[in-house]
Amino acid sequence: MNTPKYEIEDILNIPEGKTFDRKSAKYDLNKLANILIAFANADGGTVALGINDKKYEGVNLLSTQKQNDIVQIGSQRIIPTLEVEITKKPITNIQKMDDTVWLLSVNPSDDKVYMNKKDEVYLRIGDETHRVTFEERKKLEFDKGIRAFESQIVDDAILDDLDDETVTQYKKLYGFEGDNLWDLLFPKGLAKRIKDQNGNIDYRLTVAGILLLSKFPTAFVPGARIRFIRYEGREAKTGTNMNIVKQLRIEGPLPKMLQQASDMIESQLRTFSSLDIKTGKFVDVPEYPKSAWLEGIVNAVTHRAYNYDGDDIRIIMFDNRLEIHSPGSLPAVVTTDNIRYTHYSRNPYIARALTDFGWVREFGEGVDRIYIDMKEFFLDDPVYKVDDNSVNLVLKNNIVMRSVRKNDDLASKIGDDWENLNFIEQAAIGMAYEHGSVRTRELLNNVDNYSMTSVRNALKNLTNMGILEQVASAPTSPNQYYRLIK
Fold it and tell me: What's the CATH number where 443 sits?
């Protein structure tokens, strides 16, 4: 079982969510089966049975028949039969008597969709057990075929193919000190056990194990790489006008790929000087919030369809936006409308491992944080462009609008004139406010679909209004600029 080993002292306080729930021993067994179905169809999970209102109720109050029904819940109430591991934890119940709490744990399903006797399918979304619609069910069934790929055996991969440094780090995460590495990899879903006709047991690495720990994952999973491309300007050009200024192909175990991609992006990002309204001092502000772009990359690595071997993850940087391309459409019940709050792991074993490595946020939190962090940086909401073959996340970096969105403070400095200004005029003030000055060409480059004449007229009008002042050694000086009049 690839389920967490919960300590009894923590069970009362662990937050209920994507992979954990607490229920009274007297909870309806059909509803309990639905929760286990929801866990199995999602990322796996555990139900702590015998807890009522965060107090130890215990299971001994149940009859022998009722306890036996719970033991057989995976075969009696779930189709197809679901393996449910039951761990009995000794406790002292609220009557001060010796008792037990039962932990019912299930693994995420690879290629099956589980249902109850009424042919109803459930999926765990956040801390809710969601009954899926007909359309969601069809998509879930399709997605199981993709999910099964991470659990496939890679016949020609051996332990010598693993990256020693990453394996050592992985061992430390779980305090593993044993000599047989299979004892660590098998229960985590990174290896499978094979028994031959004579009863001899052997192990093989899975796709998830290769992706997470192999020195050269692309030798076994073509397309398991990240490509970084940096363009000069706002569009990609070809031929003699080719404007690529930086590109890198990143390969290796997933934790190392993520670190290398993070380092590369940080080396390419610009910083801007921004006036901190609270202190009145200018401070350096990064081009994008790191938590936003890093979450986008981690999501792509964690949830991409790795069976799409003709495509790879691409990070494409333009002057005004950052695009992250992930092969495969959105998984299961996730849509562009609910993506902020709905989570489904296409690769649950990879997701669990990257969570333990510290890369993945708590389930369901990450995408919402992208929206929040972009807003805090006065940037547009992230844009998700989805088709049948890919998910593309676009983070826009409109430095002008970051300034303009501080219009409450700008308006207080400029007075009633602010609301009567047009877009270019407000943008010019925003740039002058944010950077201390604004030049004609800079303003033109930061306001799309406007002419040089419109830009010059805006600067002239602001100067006549006494909001900006022109600074130049001569009327036609190429180094002239405009700044706010103090």
Answer: 1.10.10.10
d(CA 92, CA 101): 9
Amino acid identity, residue 153?
Answer: I
Structure confidence at residue 422 as a pLDDT band (50, 70, 90): confident
- The Cα 362–Cα 366 span in angstroms is 7
Contact between 46 and 18 under an 8 Å Cβ cutoff? The reply is no
Range of the domain at 324: 226-400
**Spatial separation of the C-alpha atoms in residues 121 and 225, rounded to whole Å:** 35
Distance between CA 151 and CA 350 in Å, rounded?
10
Distance, CA of 186 to CA of 233 (rounded, Å): 48
Q: How many helices (H) and strands (E) does the chain have?
A: 16, 22
Q: Which residues pair with 201 in a beta bridge?
A: 195
Distances (CA, A) of 81 to 78, 117, 121, 154, 375: 6, 11, 14, 27, 46
pLDDT tens-digit map of 315-367:
999 988 999 999 998 887 888 888 888 878 889 899 989 999 999 865 456 78
Listed residues 373, 400, 427: the one ending a domain: 400
Regarding whether 370 and 257 lie in a shared domain, the answer is: yes
**pLDDT of 134 above 60:** yes
Among 67, 65, 69, 105, residue whose Cα is nearest residue 86 = 105
CA–CA separation, 103 and 313 (whole Å): 38
Instruction: Annotate 35-57 with three-state secondary structure.
Output: HHHHHHHCCCEEEEECEECCEEC
Q: Are residues 332 and 248 in the same domain?
A: yes
In a domain, 189, yes or no: no
CB 296 within 8 A of CB 325: no
Residues forming beta bridges with residue 71, ordered by sequence position: none
Work out the percent of the chain whose per-residue pLDDT is above 90. 58
Asked if 382 and 276 sit in the same domain, the reply is yes
Q: What is the largest CA-CA distance in the chain?
A: 97
d(CA 230, CA 395): 14
| Nearest partner of 146 among 347, 369, 322, judged by Cα | 347
> 400, 430, 447: which is the final residue of a domain?
400
What is the average pLDDT across 384-395? 93
Q: What are phi and psi of 55, to 5 degrees?
A: -130, 145
Angle, helix 164-174 to helix 348-357, in steps of 10 degrees: 80
pTM as predicted: 0.72
383 found inside a domain: yes
Strand pairing of 78-79 and 481-484? unpaired
